[in-house]
Amino acid sequence: MSDSSDPAPAELGTASKRPLRILIGADTFAPDVNGAARFAERLAAGLVERGHEVHIVAPAASRKHGTWNEVHEGQEMVAHRLYSWRWYPHDWLRFALPWRIKRNSARILDEVQPDVVHFQSHIVVGRGLSIEAEKRGIRIIGTNHFMPENMLEFTLIPKAWQEWAVGLAWKAAKRTFGRAESVTTPTRRAAEFLERYTGLRGVHAISCGIDAHKYSPNWEPRTENRILFVGRVTGEKQIDVLLRAALLLPAELDAKIEIVGGGDQLKALQHLADELGIADRVTFTGRVTDEELRDAYHRATVLAMPSIAELQSIVTMEAMASALPVVAANAMALPHLVHDGENGYLFEPSNPEDLAAKLRTVLEADPAELRRLKEGSMRLIEAHDIQRTLATFESLYRGEAVADPATDPASAARED
Prior knowledge:
Elements lengths: L8 H7 L5 E5 L9 H15 L3 E7 L6 E7 L2 E8 L1 E3 L7 E3 L4 H12 L3 E4 L5 H12 L2 E5 L15 H19 L4 E4 L2 H11 L5 E2 L20 E5 L8 H9 L8 E5 L5 H11 L5 E5 L3 H10 L2 E4 L8 H8 L4 E4 L4 H4 L6 E4 L4 H12 L3 H15 L4 H12 L11 H7 L1
Parallel strand pairs: 1-2, 1-7, 2-4, 7-8, 8-9, 9-10, 11-12, 11-14, 12-13, 14-15, 15-16
Antiparallel strand pairs: 3-4, 5-6
């Protein structure tokens, strides 16, 4: 990370009393549907709500590109949409052109003159913005949402070359994040992961946060056993493991599976459900509105999260705020949210037998035990209030030292 000098105390005192002009750079942003895009959208909207001027730099969602105002999460901000190309191995992803990014970054930075640049990815937009912001002496904050498993299946790189390609990606990440005054990622495990693969030190663990009041628990007695998955329908989410686990559940449970989200694996998974003979118990809804998603959380008995590539999982936090128990793969940052036996259960990644066993534990629980798990989710999600996240980033934007917010209540209790 760069050794940019902090402002003098007098400057900090003045700066902290005025709104900031913040430029957020992202390789994926609304209307894209994924964790990184959702975090950037909520961060931007929350900062506007707190009185700051926010500019977004992101690939255009269509052939139309330029600068205009957009409304996200009810808040208006300025969007600088870059000319983009569709990445056809992916079902919707578009990317800004790498050979234009430095020129576009320089132009936008000179027009906006932000107090701080906060990039969400090192891949294209973050690289260009960090290079040009460093030249201009603008404070840079970087947040990592990158996981190789989320990218490899869309690169068309042969399997034999993928390890080499991942190594190059981490070297590129080290260069880009090395220009930032502060580097963040959503959880401590994700921070350790980033430090291990880049050699960076002092990475902050700052939760993506959730606006929990937008979700409400459903305490009514369940009338069916419904297992919910929400997310992109792609390979690294391992939804096939969930379908194979469903086949192993006792018939008397009459468990229904609801898959919410779109993606390139949708037809393959529908075919797999047919092959397994469970198509009549599996519903693929595709993408849904926010209101329809909240209804899905209310219908469900348990959220299943078989993904092996989650740096935090906003979906899991939404489910917890809706008082759902969660059965999740014991991989990456999911154990940070799912405390085994407290608000759900962890299963061995890629193991449908273990997933089925843990789902049975929830589905066969008596009402008192199920309520205990639901209350566990409500209790654990309290530490992920987005207002804490916004306040921490505001401090970083002003060059103030921060302590990573405690997002594990058990850990926080041990420290007291």
